[in-house]
From TrEMBL:
GO biological process, one term: proteolysis
Keywords, in A-Z order: Aminopeptidase, Hydrolase, Manganese, Protease
CC per GO annotation: cytoplasm
PROSITE patterns registered for this protein in UniProt: CYTOSOL_AP (PS00631)
Sample GO molecular function, one term: manganese ion binding
Species of provenance: Thioclava pacifica DSM 10166
Domain Cytosol aminopeptidase: 318-325
Identification of the protein by name: Cytosol aminopeptidase domain-containing protein
Pfam families from the UniProt entry: Peptidase_M17, Peptidase_M17_N_1
Family classification: Belongs to the peptidase M17 family.
């Protein structure tokens, strides 16, 4: 492991060049404007662009030679239909250009300029804890009219999330997740407290304790608070640092990515950084139930009935449906101090992936205004989301009869919806509540998103907060 690695480390490749720094022009060209662009170039440069096979595809780069080397470059915008299918496509330029500072020229729509600028920063992410990997050396001057510090805070929050998810469980258990939260709190002068081990029972967090008690790494509830004025926002993130499935042991193929089962906690921590780093005028509370779902003599069992913090009883029909159990206690605790908005984020169900695939996490809320704001923000900042229903007729599926709730309804259908309905039972009807069922993983490399851990929903939430917390 490189000695300099640490969470929230400064990453020069994920920062903008200074606006007064000497830079070379990066000239945007759409396919239907390519002939006109070539006509404006000196004949030798135009011939060189043609020789490179440049057709102005999304993120394609053509270098422009000069007397002292490369004096500029063309940047392909692609056709509108291609742009819509290629999120952060312009970020390809970051890895294709020579070292130095580059400046986008011309008039850019604000949304396109922001996506291009943020994508460039995100393209500089590398997870270098266990093997060196050099980021791109080309740096971008933040386009005029954009808030460079805000975009850097967003990129840094996303990098924090990715680092946490990418770190294997050998180095990212409940202890290490707590340490990461403490580092974040220290950086932003937030307060933090932790309820751990047997104290979970003494302070009435029985389901967090039950899920984590079989592991030698003690379960805990991490709580971070920041800000003294403004509306109250509570973020709750699932922190299952590794999920074996418990006594309902997962097959090996299903266990391979379970280091990412704390992706909800990683995402809310990254979002918390964005909020605190930009000095948002709100009161922030972050709750993370951090556990490892292990197999041992003290494992909770199929058929057990657990009594939650709220007093609702839960029949355990599958110990691999543990995330909703730890979240239930955390949500009940959060609900005891109502907020203007409560958000839950979790890598909760495979059903969500079957429905929407790895790129599009569903979210659930009864508040149409919040849903509309999130949907709008997701399109604006290229952070896809899709609203799914709290479908009332499915409530019966989570009521087993022997207890108030069933943690794993039989039948295998509507799994994401029934999990969302389960969580809603621990939040009062008057509380504005949103639940996100995220994946937290990029299966194959894409522009600005290397294969591995990835934040989902955080940027859309961050963009929507000014509207939903007015």
């Amino acid at each position: 492991m490189p000695a300099e690695f640490s969470f929230l480390a400064d990453r020069p490749a994920m920062r903008f060049a200074q606006r007064d720094e000497a830079s070379r022009p990066l000239i945007p060209v759409a396919p239907d404007g390519l002939d006109a662009a070539l006509a404006e170039l000196p004949p030798a440069q135009a011939a060189f662009v043609k020789a490179q096979g440049f057709n102005a595809g999304v993120g394609q780069v053509a270098l422009l030679p000069g007397a002292d080397g490369v004096e500029g470059a063309l940047l392909g915008l692609g056709a509108p239909a291609k742009q819509a299918r290629d999120r952060f496509g312009l970020a390809r330029a970051a890895g294709a250009l020579p070292e130095g500072a580059w400046k986008l020229t011309g008039a850019w729509p604000a949304e396109m300029a922001e996506e291009a600028a943020l994508g460039w920063l995100l393209a500089g992410y590398r997870f270098g804890r266990y093997a060196e990997s050099a980021p791109p050396k080309a740096r971008l001057v933040c386009p005029e009219g954009l808030d460079a510090a805000r975009l850097e805070a967003i990129a840094e929050g996303e990098a924090f999330t990715r680092d946490l998810i990418n770190t294997p469980a050998s180095d990212m258990g409940p202890d290490e997740l707590e340490t990461a939260a403490r580092l974040l709190a220290e950086r932003h002068s937030a307060t933090i407290k932790v309820v751990k081990g047997a104290d979970l029972l003494a302070q009435n967090f029985p389901m967090i304790h039950a899920v984590g008690r079989a592991s030698p790494r003690a379960p805990r509830l991490i709580e971070l608070n920041w800000g003294g004025e403004g509306p109250a926002l509570t973020l709750v993130g699932k922190g299952v640092c590794f999920d074996t499935g418990g006594l309902n042991l997962k097959p090996g193929a299903s266990m391979g990515l379970m280091k990412k089962d704390m992706g909800g906690s990683a995402t809310v921590l990254g979002l918390a950084h964005m909020i605190m780093a930009t000095g948002a005028a709100l009161r922030l509370r972050v709750l993370i139930p951090a556990v490892e779902n292990s197999v041992g003599g003290d494992s909770f069992r199929p058929g057990d009935i657990l009594t939650s913090r709220k007093g609702l009883t839960v029949e355990i029909n599958n110990t691999d449906a543990e995330g909703r159990l730890v979240l239930a206690d955390a949500l009940a605790y959060a609900d005891e101090t109502p907020a203007d908005l409560m958000i839950c984020m979790a890598t909760l169900t495979g059903a969500a992936r079957v429905a929407l695939g790895p790129d599009v996490p569903p979210f659930y809320t009864d508040d149409d205004g919040v849903a509309e704001a999130l949907a709008k923000a997701s399109r604006t900042v290229a952070d896809p989301l899709w609203r799914m229903p709290f479908w009332e007729p499915y409530e019966a599926k989570i009521e087993p009869g022997i207890a108030d709730l069933d943690n794993a309804p039989s039948g295998g259908m509507a799994g994401s919806i029934t999990a969302a309905l389960f969580l809603r039972r621990f939040v009062t009807e008057t509380q504005r509540f949103v639940h996100f069922d995220i994946y937290g993983w990029q299966p194959a490399a894409a522009p600005a998103r290397p294969k591995g851990g990835v934040g989902q929903g955080a940027r859309a939430i961050f963009a929507a907060l000014p509207e939903v917390l007015t």
